[in-house]
Specification:
Rossmann fold, five-stranded parallel β-sheet, 5 strands, alpha/beta, disordered N terminus
Length: 139
């Protein structure tokens, strides 16, 4: 069990989020919007997502539902197996999937945002999820 005490450095350090989307313009926009509050990592396809989460102690994943080079259903299951407490926000334009896949993704994801979305609403949700993740990780 981890101690609930944290150094000032722990409390002051920027939380790390990973943005995964094939649309580089969306990634750059999200980076610019969040860079003052978070340490933002970008990836444009799904093949490196697990490795980036692991190597960089990512505290929230913001991913497009249709990211290239992976089957999102499998990727999300692998992430939840290895990082069960990691909050995941899914961005999407449309969902072309079976009901079973949709139900499974709904169980895995912490939130959904349909594109285009309000950046301030997304920011509020990220703040809430990262704060809750930090509290859970401390106990």
């Amino acid at each position: 069990m981890k101690s609930a005490r944290h150094s000032i450095g722990d409390l002051m350090k920027k939380k790390r989020i990973l943005v995964a989307d094939s649309d580089k313009d969306i990634c750059r926009s999200l980076y610019e919007f969040f860079k003052d509050d978070y340490e933002v990592f970008l990836v444009y396809d799904g093949k490196d997502v697990l490795q980036l989460i692991s190597e960089n102690n990512i505290e929230l994943l913001l991913t497009d539902l249709n990211i290239p080079n992976v089957y999102i259903y499998n990727l999300l299951n692998k992430i939840k197996e290895k990082f069960p407490e990691l909050p995941i926000i899914i961005m999407y334009v449309y969902c072309d999937s079976t009901q079973e896949m949709e139900d499974t993704i709904r169980k895995i994801a912490s939130a959904f945002f349909r594109k285009p979305f309000d950046l301030n609403e997304l920011k509020k949700r990220i703040e809430l999820l990262v704060t809750n993740h930090y509290i859970l990780d401390s106990n």
